[in-house]
Design brief:
By secondary structure, this protein is an alpha/beta fold. Helices cover 47% and strands 15% of the residues. Keywords: Amino-acid biosynthesis, Aromatic amino acid biosynthesis, Lyase, Tryptophan biosynthesis.
Length: 257
Amino acid sequence: MNNIAQTFKNGKVLIPYITCGDPDLAVTADVIKTVDQTGADIIELGIPFSDPAGEPPIAQRASARALKGGVTTDKVFSMAEKLQSEIKAPFVIMTYANVVFGYGTERFLKRCQETGIKGLLLPDVPFEEKDDFAPLCRKYGVELISMLSTSSGKRVPKIASEAEGFLYGIAAPDATNSEEDVCSKLKAMVCEAKDANPQIPCCIDANGLELEQIQEVLQFADGIVIGAPLLQLLEEKGAEAVNPIREYIGRLKQVMG
């Protein structure tokens, strides 16, 4: 398994997001293998949470199905541990602070180290509170991924200057009224971040963006995160979604060059 820094040396990066356990962990493992073989550069594993605030409905439903099916944090770690020797793309976990606290922060990060998890993204933890996790992340070699929004304003340079792994950029809800507005605001955000920290890669959450917008985003960003189309396929097709996901990721990689 590669590390995050190595990944960004090979060109534009594609990061598929997968909710672990939707529809079950066996299918999740098949999807992980499929996207890895089809060209995923980093794989973002979502540990389901009962109250995923701010998530789109498709992701909320995926979490609900996974939890109903009995997925636990331990089961996700066990799956990752079994897969780490055959997967090239580094794993990054996305979950919520209460999941980590409930498991025990040090225990959680120790398991990340043991199971090949290279990064951690906690969307409900403000940048100003990252020190609740950062020391233990460093202790166990897990990069704490910071989020940037087009509404981050004057905080962008500070967030970028202290970022690890890569920056995860999103368009704030008020930036989605105009397609041109989305890309221009994302570009301004990335440029400001790069001015503050030229070495930090910046990936953009491309969910909801049209293909033309994704191509435009890739002119200034280092990669994209894509989840909603995969979650939609899994919701509609269940275990039969693996081949359509393979085809989708293959097409996206072609667009990315």
